[in-house]
């Protein structure tokens, strides 16, 4: 073995570049074939189990020794690179070494899965996913120069990417990177692998290091989906230990930020078109893959909380993960789905003081989203309406509990401040209606909340009255008056039924709005009709 390997590595540890220029793939393949007894590649063949009887100890020693040698060879290859690229003959050597290393070690794992432990101990994942290999560019055309039967070989190399469900035809994803991801995915889903944390960790590290290449991020995320599907039990444990979801969502947030920087005035829709009706196929490949990356990351989150019995409770106690979730709320194509996941967190019954604290933090984060939407988004009115509608759904889960929880999170200040602004009539009225309806839900049948709101806006809700009068530059609709009447009775006002006034502060608010916008005769008639239908509690 030393004789064969000397074609590549001298005694002092440097590469013999002259050998590399006259067919390095032949020497390395010969070495691998003799020591692992791997049959010569035939067109159309795939990676299969080695059937010849070989000592497991021999395999292990060979594998360890080869990893040590390659750990010396690849840094030397990288040292030969200039600032721009490798010399052609060295690039050939690098590509061939990488390809045969990956295919050989995968074949060894198929035949002897127990050697996975040895691979880990020798740092194989660190070697493969390092700047010497994974982040060290290689060219498919270069491989074609070396390996005969170009068309057939291309199909063979591309097979490695198919397990991730993603073809590596993108400028930021090459064939060898796809083979590396495929190999790691295979190791993580081995039946004999009861703890795939090292593999998940290596893949996660690769994900965090390649955020500038959305195509590569997409490939890695698809591999995570495969691993979670094929090795669910051990992967759930690994995800929890590594906090995978938070880190994946952070990558998605980075991709979303890049999208907004690249197209600050664009509004990306979930149907693949912008608000200006420019079709998705007019976007460049990186933009499309960045959008796919964000969606895949969020889908991985949904998959996890759906599969795991404790998944949502773990998320509830993970402030960083929740923060990333609300960051993705800014993406219109995900907004509805994010709110669905947030609502599911609120449905979790609190069973401890820690759960209560986590729910309070969730409420605070929810309310902060109003402020963030107003400060950073042009369409914050629509976003605020979505948040208000979901907030009313949350209150319905457990009215008294969530009224108190949101009150402690200073919900009234966040909600009333939404009326500070200028809007067109249609959007403005919808926002006012939703603000009043949400305040009604938060105040209904809760004297403590009513007292807290009165302290904030004054007796008779003077501050709210001023905001409404300034906000409504147009004639108030019947819906607005109905919303005020609903606030008056802590629910829905029915004109044909006797109703009890349950919130006296709204009386002055309602009368002043009515007096400002309606003629005195109509105003008097309205008061008479209302007086006949309501009485004090």
TrEMBL record:
InterPro entries on file: BEACH_Domain, Neurobeachin_a-sol
Identification of the protein by name: Neurobeachin alpha-solenoid region domain-containing protein
The organism of origin for this protein: Aegilops tauschii subsp. strangulata (Goatgrass)
Neurobeachin alpha-solenoid region domain sequence ranges: 196-520
Family annotation (Pfam families): Neurobeachin
């Amino acid at each position: 073995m030393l004789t064969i390997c000397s074609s590549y590595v001298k005694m002092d540890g440097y590469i013999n570049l002259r050998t590399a220029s006259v067919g390095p793939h032949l020497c390395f393949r010969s070495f691998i074939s003799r020591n692992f007894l791997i049959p010569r590649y035939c067109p159309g063949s795939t990676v299969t189990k080695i059937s010849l009887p070989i000592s497991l100890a021999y395999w292990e020693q060979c594998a360890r020794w080869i990893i040590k040698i390659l750990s010396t060879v690849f840094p030397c290859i990288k040292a030969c690179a200039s600032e721009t690229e490798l010399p052609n003959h060295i690039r050939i050597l690098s590509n061939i070494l990488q390809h045969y290393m990956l295919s050989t070690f995968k074949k060894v794992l198929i035949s002897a899965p127990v050697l996975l432990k040895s691979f880990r101990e020798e740092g194989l994942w660190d070697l493969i996913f390092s700047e010497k290999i994974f982040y060290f560019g290689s060219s498919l055309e270069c491989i074609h120069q070396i390996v005969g039967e170009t068309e057939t070989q291309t199909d063979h190399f591309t097979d490695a990417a198919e397990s991730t469900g993603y073809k590596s035809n993108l400028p930021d994803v090459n064939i060898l990177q796809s083979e590396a991801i495929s190999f790691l995915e295979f190791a993580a889903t081995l039946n004999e692998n009861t703890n795939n944390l090292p593999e998940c960790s290596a893949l996660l590290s690769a994900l965090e290091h390649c955020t500038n290449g959305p195509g590569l991020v997409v490939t890695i995320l698809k591999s995570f989906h495969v691993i979670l599907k094929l090795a669910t039990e051990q992967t759930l444990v690994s995800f929890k230990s590594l906090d995978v979801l938070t880190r994946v969502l952070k990558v998605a947030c980075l991709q979303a930020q890049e999208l907004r920087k690249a197209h600050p005035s664009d509004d990306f829709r979930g149907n693949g078109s912008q608000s200006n009706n420019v079709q998705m196929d007019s976007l460049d490949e990186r933009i499309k893959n960045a959008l796919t990356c964000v969606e895949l990351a969020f889908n991985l989150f949904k998959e996890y909380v759906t599969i795991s019995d404790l998944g949502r409770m773990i998320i509830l106690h993970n402030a960083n993960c929740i923060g990333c979730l609300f960051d993705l709320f800014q993406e219109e194509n995900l907004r509805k789905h994010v709110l669905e996941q947030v609502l599911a967190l609120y449905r979790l019954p609190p069973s401890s003081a820690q759960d209560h604290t986590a729910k309070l933090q969730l409420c605070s984060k929810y309310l902060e989203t109003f402020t963030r939407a107003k400060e950073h988004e042009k369409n914050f009115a629509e976003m605020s309406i979505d948040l208000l509608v979901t907030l009313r759904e949350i209150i319905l889960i457990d009215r008294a509990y969530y009224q108190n929880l949101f009150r402690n999170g200073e919900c009234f200040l966040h909600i009333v401040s939404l009326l500070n602004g200028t809007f067109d009539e249609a959007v403005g009225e919808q926002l006012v209606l939703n603000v009043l309806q949400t305040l009604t839900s938060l105040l209904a049948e809760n004297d403590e909340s009513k007292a807290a709101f009165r302290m904030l806006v004054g007796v008779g809700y003077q501050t709210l009255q001023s905001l409404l009068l300034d906000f409504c530059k147009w004639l108030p609709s019947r819906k607005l008056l109905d919303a005020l009447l609903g606030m008056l009775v802590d629910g829905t006002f029915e004109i044909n039924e006797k109703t009890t006034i349950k919130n006296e502060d709204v009386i002055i608010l309602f009368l002043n709005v009515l007096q400002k916008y309606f003629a005195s005769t109509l105003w008097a008639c309205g008061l008479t009709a209302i007086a006949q239908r309501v009485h004090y509690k």
